[in-house]
Amino acid sequence: MKLDPRVPAGPLAEKWDRCKMEMKLVNPANKRKYHVIVVGTGLAGGACAASLAELGYQVSTFCYQDSPRRAHSIAAQGGINAAKNYRNDGDSVERLFLDTIKGGDYRARESNVYRLAQNSVNIIDQCVAQGVPFAREYGGQLDNRSFGGAQVSRTFYCRGQTGQQLLLGAYSSLNRQIEQGNVKSHPRHEMMDLVVVDGKAKGIIVRDSVTGQIERHSADAVVLASGGYGTVYFLSTNAMGCNVSATFRAYKRGALFANPCYTQIHPTCIPVNGDYQSKLTLMSESLRNDGRIWVPQKPGDNRPPASIPESERDYYLERKYPSYGNLAPRDISSRAAKEACDQGKGVGQTGRGVYLDFADAIGRLGQKTIAERYGNLFDMYAHITGENPYQSPMRIYPAVHYVMGGLWVDYRLMSNIPGLFVLGEANFSDHGANRLGASALMQGLADGYFTAPYTITDYLAGVKPGSSDVKATEFAQAESDVSQRLKKLQDVKGKHSSQAFHRELGKLVWEYCGMARTKEGLTKALGLIPELRERFWKEVSVPGSGAGMNQGLENAARVADFLEFAEVMCTDAITREESCGAHFREEYQTEEGEAQRNDAEYSFVSAWEYAGEGKAPIWNKEPLNPEFVKPSVRSYK
Amino acid sequence: MKLHLKIWRQKGPTDQGQFENHTIDGIIPDMSFLEMMDVLNVKLASEGKQTIAFDHDCREGICGSCSMMINGRAHGPTRGTTCQTYMRNFRDGQTIVIEPWRAMAFPVMCDLVVDRSSFDRIQQAGGYVSVNVGGAPDGNSVPVSKVNADLAMDAAQCIGCGACVAACKNASAMLFVAAKVGHLGLLPQGEAEARDRVKKMVSRMDAEGFGNCTNHYECEAVCPKEISADFISKMNRDYLGATVFPKPM
Ligand SMILES: Cc1cc2nc3c(=O)[nH]c(=O)nc-3n(C[C@H](O)[C@H](O)[C@H](O)COP(=O)(O)OP(=O)(O)OC[C@H]3O[C@@H](n4cnc5c(N)ncnc54)[C@H](O)[C@@H]3O)c2cc1C
Ligand code: FES
Q1: pLDDT digit string, tens, across residues A524-548
Q2: Do B3-109 and B116-131+141-244 share a fold?
Q3: Centroid of chain to Cα A150
Q4: pTM for the whole thing?
Q5: Is A562 part of a structural domain of the chain?
Q6: What is the distance between the terminal CA atoms of chain B, rounded to a whole angstrom?
Q7: Is A74 near ligand 1, meaning CB less than 6 Å away?
Q8: Is A192 left (phi over 0), alpha (psi -120 to 50) or beta?
Q9: Secondary structure percentages of chain A, helix, strand, coil, to 5
Q10: A424 in Cβ contact with A443 (< 8 Å)
Q11: Diameter over CA atoms, chain B
Q12: Most Cβ neighbours (<10 Å): which of A47, A452, B106, B135?
């Protein structure tokens, strides 16, 4: 398939303005005639739905939680980047662009990233106007903190609950539109399929999780802002309900899945400590502003941290990456932690952990200041582990956190299926092979408030409003596919819960498609996944009926999709024969153990196309052709 | 640990519902309360029995989904959400009674799941600043005193879980509403609509069937985000100001 990213011509700084001038508009009086479906009410979906409704379109939103306010954006802790340069420390749109491109290990599309940096500035203004209670300095001005992969302080925050406050901002705008009758909200509705009519996205099939009813919804355009699929690994910092189903169903209807193997493993999470565990908890990267990471120098040293003298500690990030130190980017910090533990220096019962120590910062700034900055994170840590991090260092270990991969979109955030727009973590667009901290919130809001409202308008201008009809055969077909799939799950009547299979799949992909990958391991995984899938379809138990609430059925349907998707993910990983960003192939590393890119052969986006049941997906490539930044060895030393 | 669970089961909104007894073994003190529930559900599924429905998502105390009445206390024995409650706070052999939130404005939908959409509708009545995307001035153009920004943040932390309502003998939503009114009212951006906002939100709250506040402050005691009941007093003042003096003086 020929992929056209529709990047506007001209200098980088002028592309978006040009694009806005080239795009068509819809007359204000006609806007009401158009209906847009938005799946997802996180930062991306919530912002987009509210903005479209403000413009005058009719919007329907869908989310699986009981309220739009509970989308997983709510859990983001640390902050949101913006090139405001309020600190006068040398920040600019160009610098944010460059940091993001470099952070992504030169595997992102330059034009998109530049627009992101441009729009970042407006996001903060919009959120302040909505009443987002950002942290302030004594003079009443907005405060900033630093995040990994940057040498400027450009991160805006609301204590340790930035995502919550930004989401509540978007949710409040959405509420205003609901009250005005421009948005119809459908909580507790799960998207089960995409409906494509004459090659265009025209609606979705959903399951009402209260009544169990399968419903058809038609629209002039469909927006997917369904978040990330990190839960394919079972254990992750994502919410339990995060899923790949919305995007994977679109994939099965013809949308391309881009770079599915780029998974971000976050360096600072509370370590796994038992087989029963259901999720991993992030300790925000912002902690690395004041916390120092170390392990004992001697392997197997199991003295309590306080009895290990300074001279016998290895502050390995400060040692290896002196200019970024504890604020080295996530992929690099995670691998460094793994390396230390592989050498036997890991701490805690399992030996898979490193210390994040605040003793210096508490000594320098006092416990009160530290509590003001990170109080809720310290409390959370104490709650979960039963240990007091003010007294002894936290123990942390990398965990799956974010996916850079997602549905392929062009510059206008439209997938290869006309009328299907994909925003936020669900798309692949801005972070290349590794995302910098505090940039996902920025991307979600940039997509939702400032990009999609323009580009969707341009698309709608070429569509006759109200032409989509739920009586079309495509809707009937999709609905019956969904019903049959659900019935098939219930008919298995095996002995094991879907969670058991999910756990097993998670272990498998973590082992072979996690922090370090090899051709051998991935080959093995590609053999094991179909076996596991087969067992699932023979042995899964989904009790209860399809009518009414049935959380077991919801989960089984998601796990079924993960079991198929995992294969696409591993296929992507095995075919990318280089290391870049979060994708670390052991075969491709420098002598010092750093990722070794292969720009000559792999400077492209892999976009996978569904080829039919039981067939290998088709490999499409979008060449990246970096025009403005010359890729170089990514050094944080 | 071995535990005896007495769990509310209810097939649907119109079903009567009743308690069901389960005994489970092999619970580890470091498990979260919901992980303990997972163990039970995995067991039920393997026996071909319908699993117990409960709301949960983030499992880190921020989304506000989880909502269980544990031994008569909203979210259980420790301060924090149900998902952040750990089994180390229970005794081996203990009997634990698990119920959904009980309030007229939160009808039970299935087992431990309740309908909290009344909270959304209160927010829709006026829990926002009326600003469209596009016209916002520079973020630093209006300074906000750190004291007010911090106070606003104290209120804005509300996760909308509904524990305050569940704990209140009148099933009042005052703390929830006061948190939103307080958050926006403390910021210059929210001031212009403050009088209207408090009136609209309070009247929607009443219309949804929440009870009156009689100052017992059970809400404050169970709030996982420790939101202060002082916000209720502040809202009462704002409300009085807005209704007794319809025009600003
Ligand atoms: C613990 C944690 C901390 C983080 N901290 C930061 C940070 O400090 N800074 C930063 O920039 N980023 C951070 N991130 C990343 C960032 O929060 C997310 O990438 C971002 O919020 C995703 O937003 P979204 O709108 O794309 O998706 P989400 O907020 O995940 O929303 C997805 C929406 O889609 C809906 N949905 C999903 N599937 C379906 C379906 N099948 N049917 C119907 N609806 C569906 C959901 O109901 C939800 O409404 C963090 C992430 C985590 C997990
Ligand atoms: S599950 Fe999110 S707060 Fe408990």
Answers
A1: 999 999 999 999 999 999 999 889 9
A2: no
A3: 20
A4: 0.97
A5: yes
A6: 63
A7: no
A8: alpha
A9: 40, 15, 40
A10: yes
A11: 68
A12: A47
Check if A330 is active-site.
Answer: yes
Task: Give the CA diameter of chain A.
Answer: 74
CATH of the domain at A603: 1.20.58.100
In angstroms and rounded to an integer, the radius of gyration of the C-alpha atoms of chain B is 20
Tokens of A600: 């000559």
Task: Name the token pair of B162.
Answer: 């509904």
- Using most ligand atoms within 8 A of CB, pick from A226, A245, A553 the residue to mutate for ligand 1: A226
Of these residues, A330, A335, A352, A373, which one is catalytic? A330
CATH code matching the domain that covers B3-109, chosen among 3.10.310.40, 3.30.930.10, 2.60.40.10, 3.10.20.30: 3.10.20.30
| Residue A210 within any structural domain of the chain | no
Topology of domain B116-131+141-244 in CATH is Fumarate Reductase Iron-sulfur Protein; Chain B, domain 2 (1.10.1060)
Domain span at A583 = 483-623
Whether B45 sits inside 8 A of A543 (CB atoms) is yes
Structural domain total, chain A: 2
Residue pLDDT, tens place only, A12-58: 999 999 999 999 999 999 999 999 999 999 999 999 999 999 999 99
Single out the residue in A381, A400, A419 at which a domain terminates: A400
Q: Which of residues 214-243 of B touch A (CB under 8 A)?
A: none
Distance B159 CA to ligand 2 centre (A): 9
Residue spans of the domains in chain B: they are 3-109, 116-131+141-244
- CA A567 – CA B188 distance, rounded (Å): 52
Q: CB-based contacts of A366: which residues, under 8 Å, 6+ apart?
A: none
